[in-house]
Design brief:
elongated, alpha/beta, 457 residues, five-stranded parallel β-sheet
Length: 457
């Protein structure tokens, strides 16, 4: 939208700059003026622009210098150069160096508006093309969610009702349950389906980089910022931004996110100005945010902003009737990725066993197991013997809770055995096990030391 685009007009004749600013402002653009090349380069360092309109011939620092600086800061930033009739050769040289277009003086103001609009459209199309390439194998509506169990049918109905809304949605569910699939379904079934869907995992990046990833940065804003970055909020402008694992966002960044949600504006790291964005926010967490708010670990005002609509994704153990369909689907996907595999199906007793397993890692854990069976399987049909080769927990009796049937087991013993079982299921990764259990990893270490000390007495 023109109202969200910011333009830098550069001309060492101030009256020419003002003459250009007025019609651009009337057209809905946000316009900054610069009266020289050096000042323009400083402004490029301080703020994110969508188009630069610059005079070619200026004293000391000319339009080619500004073009070079703009290309260094943001290689995709379109620069339109204005030149007198006798300097067309220099303008052609500027095109070779990466200028988007040049205008020969005298020009009509409607001509300027036309080329500015084209430059913005070209940039938008490049961004959309990049987003589509990234999303081509990921986008999907309700068809990407599998299952006809009662919990899933309830979820489908809620998605169908909520998708058309602009309200923020907080998606709750255990790790691996399919929260991102729900977010993509909300986007694809809603009015923003043709606009970008941009996802970021708040735990996947160091806290120091997450702010830059979300809001963008100016070149030189910090060590390693070698070019200007627009940020995910700007990339998602007009579409949807999915903030996965929002519960792990650091407190200082929570405050900045709250301001964006309140004001509809983002400020790039190192910039001295902000820009408007139109983004629908979807957030997800496996944590109990209500408890984190009470503990002071998550801002209450941000929680209320995000929790306008809340959707719960059921864990796999609550919809075991979906497991046969999921198993069939995952086998087909795994075969497509591994066409040389001999496996074509799972034996009925294998599917029955899968349906009785507890799946602490939910759908993601099941998908990984099925792919392992397809990759390593030597026979067309995977049987129970092959299943047991690839998971020590294939039989339901392996679950520690089975030991409690028919006898009284001390709670502390059962708790310790269950923690050990989950750690084993996570391949010894105690951090991952603590995440699944909803406890701090230090609790696992402390229990191991205590249990070890007891066993040695």
């Amino acid at each position: 939208m023109p109202s969200s685009a910011r333009i830098l007009v550069v001309d060492d004749h101030e009256e020419m700059g003002q003459m250009l600013k007025e019609p651009l402002t009337d057209a809905g653009y946000r316009v900054d003026l610069s009266t020289g090349g050096a000042d323009a380069i400083a402004q490029l360092r301080a703020r994110v622009y969508d188009v630069v309109l610059c005079d070619l011939r200026m004293e000391e620092v000319d339009g080619l210098d500004v073009l070079a600086a703009a290309r260094r800061h943001d290689p995709e930033l379109p620069v339109l150069l204005m030149t007198a009739f006798g300097a067309v050769e220099s303008a052609v040289e500027a095109m070779k160096r990466g200028a988007y277009h040049y205008l020969t003086k005298p020009f009509r103001l409607d001509e300027v508006l036309l080329h500015v609009g084209r430059a913005l459209e070209s940039r938008r199309l490049r961004t959309e093309h990049r987003d589509l390439k990234r999303q081509v194998t990921q986008r999907g509506g309700l068809g990407s969610l599998l299952g006809h169990s009662v919990p899933m049918r309830t979820l489908y109905e809620l998605i169908d009702r909520v998708a058309a809304s602009e309200a923020p949605v907080l998606i709750r569910g255990e790790s691996g349950s399919g929260k991102e699939l729900v977010a993509r379904a909300l986007h694809s079934e809603g009015p923003r389906s043709q606009a970008p869907f941009v996802a970021v995992n708040c735990t996947a990046l160091p806290h120091a980089l997450l702010e830059s990833e979300l809001f963008g940065h100016i070149k030189g804003a910090f060590s390693g910022a070698t070019t200007t970055r627009r940020g995910l909020f700007v990339e998602a402008d007009g579409g949807t931004l999915f903030l996965d694992e929002i519960g792990d966002m650091p407190p200082e960044l929570q405050a900045k996110l709250l301001r964006v949600l309140q004001d509809g504006e983002v400020r790039a790291v190192g910039a001295d100005g902000s820009r408007r964005v139109d983004v629908r926010i979807l957030a997800a967490t496996h944590q109990d945010l209500d408890a984190r708010v009470k503990e002071g670990r998550f801002r209450a005002d941000l929680f209320y902003r995000l929790n306008v609509v809340s959707l719960r994704v059921p864990p796999l153990r609550e919809r075991t009737e979906d497991i046969p369909k999921l198993a069939e689907h995952f086998v087909a996907q795994a075969r497509a990725r591994n066409p040389r595999s001999s496996v074509t199906a799972l034996a009925p007793e294998v599917v029955a066993t899968l349906s009785r397993m507890p799946w602490p890692g939910n759908v993601r854990e099941m998908e990984n197991l099925v792919e392992r069976l397809v990759v390593l399987g030597a026979q067309p049909t995977v049987d129970l013997a092959q299943l047991r080769l690839h998971t020590s927990e294939a039989a339901p009796e392996a679950h520690p809770l089975a030991a409690a049937h028919g006898q009284v087991v001390p709670l502390r013993q059962l708790e310790g055995e269950y923690i050990a079982w989950v750690v084993a299921r996570c391949g010894g990764n105690k951090t991952r096990a603590a995440e699944l259990l909803g406890i701090d990893v230090s609790t696992i270490h402390r229990r191991e030391k205590t249990d070890s000390g007891v066993s040695q007495r």
